[in-house]
Amino acid sequence: MTADTLSPESAERLRADMVATLIEQGSIRSPEVEAAFAKVPRDRFAPEAPLTDAYAPQDVVITRRDAGGRATSSLSAPWLQAEMLEAARLFPGAKVLEIGSGGYNAALIAEIVGPSGLVVSVDIDPFVAERAGRFLAEIGYSRVRVVLGDAEDAAAEHVPEGGFDAIIVTVGVWDIPWGPLLAPAGRMVVPLRFSTVSRSFTFVRDGDHFVGLDPMVCGFVAMQGAGALPDQEAVLADGAVRLTLEEGPALDVAALDQALTGDRAELWTGVTVGRGEPFDSMHLWIATADDRFGMIWQDPERDCGMVKLAMGWYCPVLITADSFAYLAIRELPRAQEATEHRWEFGVCGYGPAGAELARHLHDHVQVWDRGRRTHTAPRFILYPAEALPPVPAVGRIFRKRHTQLVMTWP
């Protein structure tokens, strides 16, 4: 039976359509990754999800939430899994460490590396580890070694002779303690947080440090355990709005909540963007220029009407103990002959220092637009914590427990 003769509702047809979409959009680029996605039944690792959701190329499937409703485990979107597998450059017989389990991604890896390869998948949650191991065994991938433990140190107990050929991290991490476990020519694909920004990097060794290649915008369930994210968080408007800040003074949640109901300072930048036009380097520039940089989030199901963010997720904000200013956006009127929609970035400030923060954020956006928007992206290098990396002329060093991430703008 061919894909064309399958029922539109069948898992096989949906899987074939997913693979075709991922190839068309360029996320699948090799026959090995294509074959793995075509064979492994994604729906078997997410039995609680409708088939159409399980095979939606762009969508995450949440498989576990905490008591507050926040996702703690998921199947990443297929496009992102494909991109990360392609970046890892797996091969038959490769030894691979996966941080963060769920089963499906480990099965894809096992399919690519084959019976002669090694796949070790580590997760801190007993529910997730048991479920992943059970699903893998049921589908025929019992050779995957599912390890229950804190990946901060548990992974080191399973490193093969010569190290892992690839390390693929499928949770959002703030630090990378696994560099010593990697083979000399190995590759680490890691979604790394720095100053609340998330980028998935492919790290390759270069002497005593790692070069971070192809930073890609992404979002993952946060790491738990010893490597948990150190962000401060202020939940405002009964949970409708949330601020996150990695560094800086302790946040006064009551004052920030009160600020949200007070007067607002509003400025518009004159900087515009068109539909589908990327502006993710703006986040990196503001994080470089201002250590008050954080993120503001709005619950899409609880619109309090108090904020109008430029984006629902990963929206830049400057935060102090009692004030904040975030990036806003508005659609511009079109001239009669114009065919393109344009939107203008603005800033909105709240609290005693809201107007000052709004002016600073306004200026950061304008500097990015004039000097960084169309220029080469920054370079990233990961050093050990004890190293003395060169201080970038334009850039920032993000110091962590095990490593230091150096971001340098040309």
UniProtKB/TrEMBL annotation:
Which PANTHER family does the protein's record reference? Answer: PROTEIN-L-ISOASPARTATE O-METHYLTRANSFERASE, PROTEIN-L-ISOASPARTATE(D-ASPARTATE) O-METHYLTRANSFERASE
The principal location of this protein is: cytoplasm
Species of origin: Streptosporangium minutum
For this UniProt entry, the molecular function terms from Gene Ontology, in alphabetical order, are:
protein-L-isoaspartate (D-aspartate) O-methyltransferase activity
**Looking at the UniProt record for this protein, which Gene Ontology cellular component terms does it annotate, in alphabetical order?**
cytoplasm
Where does this one sit in the cell? Cytoplasm
The molecule here is called Protein-L-isoaspartate O-methyltransferase
Protein family according to the UniProt entry: Belongs to the methyltransferase superfamily. L-isoaspartyl/D-aspartyl protein methyltransferase family.
Gene3D superfamilies in UniProt: Vaccinia Virus protein VP39
Q: Which UniProt keywords apply?
A: Cytoplasm, Methyltransferase, S-adenosyl-L-methionine, Transferase
